[in-house]
Sequence to fold (206 residues):
Amino acid sequence: MTATLSLQDARYQSAASVNRLFEQTIAKMREAPGVENAAVCLTLPYERALNIGGRWADAKAGDGFGLMNMTYVTPGYFETLRIPIVRGRVFSDADTASGMPVMVVNQTFVKRFSPDQDPIGRQVAQNPLPRTIIGVVGDIQQKAGFGTYGPVGIDAAPPTFPRRRRRMRSSKWCTRGSRRAGSCAWPTRSRPPPPRCSAPSSRSIR
Fold:
């Protein structure tokens, strides 16, 4: 089950207010009867993600590896959607805004951009600080920002999807990311059928 909420509101123009919204709503959702896990993400797999250019931090300027599709997620995202962890780890509450910027990539990213080198620990150049790859997750059916989407097959390679730990250092994400996506999503995994958990989830993000 998924709930959505627009952040284009005067209440969510600072990093502190956005972080507080995420933390409080996730905590309330996880306390709801039957809820196993919950998270927040900028876009769901079947929605268009952000598009960014990328290069390894130790590469020469201009020597990039092309366009990537990127989204922001909170800890619990991969567990909620049951996206398998292939190597390394995924985000945890220990990955804070004051800590090292980190990211998780999928298997296609590794095949395309780091086929001969272990991606764990490598850094991707980002503004203002490079992000360190801490984990690799399995490919899933997802929509690309540009190009085709659908089940992974011989003729339709999945898009590369770095996923950043979502805890805001500034309000820049609020004004850019949310305006592109229009809203954020709160995916929730529950044991009972979704209708039995819809009311607590809706109340949590009001």
